[in-house]
TrEMBL record:
The keyword Repeat does not apply. Keywords: Kinase, Transferase, Two-component regulatory system. InterPro entries: HATPase_C_sf (IPR036890), HATPase_dom (IPR003594), His_kinase_dom (IPR005467), Sensor_HK_TwoCompSys (IPR050482), Sig_transdc_His_kin_sub3_dim/P (IPR011712). This is Sensor histidine kinase. Gene3D superfamilies: 1.20.5.1930, Histidine kinase-like ATPase, C-terminal domain. One of its GO terms (cellular component) is membrane. Residues 10-205 form the Histidine kinase domain. The keyword Repeat does not apply. It holds the Pfam family HATPase_c. One of its GO terms (molecular function) is protein dimerization activity.
Length: 211
């Protein structure tokens, strides 16, 4: 898991700084060219369209690289990354997120921060994809070397299969991450009743020489 996250981090930076930087340069040069010589109206419109497409490509690239590894997570830690992420989701307007973070004044060990972030990412993606909810509570409480994470939505809920056999890749991945944190996950849901997921587990301590 660790090597994979490092690789993601490197790829995200290469995409953002490398490809993103190149595209932004192209956009700048095209934009400045635009006013420099006479173009027939049709070509001017087409050039404007190309610049617009470049803009979209740059935005999409930022989104992808950010999903791979948010810069704020590495630089400023879980608290800031979760605040940014939920702001971003809320800015689309469809979902209200109530964010309650306790005990995150100090940074956790980096592996743990990344794992917890990935878990929240999947849980909120599920709410967006499946729940048709209007409100979500995202609560994270750190208490010494333990944490409790709750994601609760007011959406349509689902029929939970007792063995978890019908779980998709998302919930299975979460289970694997939770196991890594010596924790457990409790899913409380039923059709029409929203969905509340609580995960609790251990905060890994910084290991000497680890990052
Ligand atoms: N918050 C939620 N609200 C409603 N249904 C959900 C929610 N979270 C998960 N589900 C249901 O559980 C299934 C499994 O989720 P998951 O393992 O993440 O797989 P995927 O998202 O790829 O379908 C989803 O397909 C969906 O039917
Ligand atoms: Mg999913």
């Amino acid at each position: 898991m660790k090597g994979q996250e490092q690789e993601r981090s490197r790829l995200a930076r290469d995409l953002h700084d490398g490809v993103g930087g190149l595209l932004s340069g192209v956009k700048l040069r095209l934009s400045s060219m635009k006013g420099n010589f006479y173009l027939p109206e049709e070509s001017a419109i087409s050039l404007q369209g190309i610049i617009g497409q470049l803009d979209n490509s740059i935005q999409e690239l930022r989104r992808v690289s950010h999903n791979m590894m948010p810069e704020a997570l590495i630089k400023y830690g879980l608290k800031e990354a979760l605040e940014n992420y939920t702001d971003y989701i809320q800015s689309s307007g469809a979902l209200q997120i109530q964010l309650q973070l306790y005990g995150l004044e100090h940074r956790l060990n980096q592996d743990t921060e990344i794992i917890l972030y990935r878990i929240v990412q999947e849980l909120l993606t599920n709410v967006i994809k499946h729940a048709q909810a209007t409100n979500v509570l995202l609560q994270f409480i750190r208490n010494n070397d333990r944490f409790t994470l709750t994601v609760e939505d007011n959406g349509k809920g689902f029929d939970k299969d007792p063995e978890g056999a019908k779980n998709g890749a998302g919930l299975s991945n979460i289970n694997a991450r939770v196991a890594y944190l010596n924790g457990n996950m409790d899913i409380n849901t039923a059709p029409g009743k929203g969905c509340s997921i609580t995960i609790e587990g251990a905060i890994r301590q910084n290991t000497p020489g680890g990052s």
